[in-house]
């Protein structure tokens, strides 16, 4: 029964793909830079995103994605982080035609995120006892400094919303994402992204 349903589902998808001029061999390769920042560790992130998407219809696609980035913070009175980042997983892509070759495009990504680097800086302020020249005690405060290796891995959900433009043949295109939001169990990240799209077959 499940096999029959699977065949029916594949047949329907292939029918949609054929009707929209999409071959079973058609794939979209998307690559481009992004910039953003993690909230809790107060870092600025830059990197490169690469995804391979299989259009199922003119409106829906599925694929895999990998993102490579570096994050660093620069502050004098807080903890400084510096780490490299790798996110990899799967995505679902939706396209909504607006006019001509322009569309609204959105992605939902389910990823595993790896961060590896170091941290150093002022970890906090603690109260301590101090004494004046006459031996009287008074409250004083001192900074605590900490440093070490930084490593974290977690499940990430990322969603993006933007605008896309494609040539009439759909061989080449551009995608701009002013909203690109990621959530992990530890932190959240907001980014801006730009992709160049190349269609194969």
Report what the structure shows.
The protein is mainly beta and 201 residues long. It is 9% helix and 72% strand. It contains one helix and eight strands. The protein has one helix spanning 2-19; strands at 27-38, 43-55, 60-72, 79-99, 102-131, 137-166, 172-184, 188-200. The protein has an eight-stranded antiparallel barrel with strand order 1-2-3-4-5-6-7-8. β2 and β3 (60-72) form a beta hairpin. The longest helix is centred in the N-terminal third of the chain and has 18 residues, at 2-19. The chain is elongated and about 90 Å long. The model has no long low-confidence stretch (mean pLDDT 87).
Give the topology, please.
Elements: H1 2-19, E1 27-38, E2 43-55, E3 60-72, E4 79-99, E5 102-131, E6 137-166, E7 172-184, E8 188-200
Keywords:
8 strands, eight-stranded antiparallel β-barrel, 201 residues, elongated, mainly beta, 9% helix
Q: What distance lies between the first and last C-alpha atoms, to the nearest angstrom?
A: 34 Å
**DSSP summary, beta strand count:** 8
Reported for the largest beta sheet, the result is:
8 strands, antiparallel, barrel
Rg is 24 Å
Strand content: over 45%
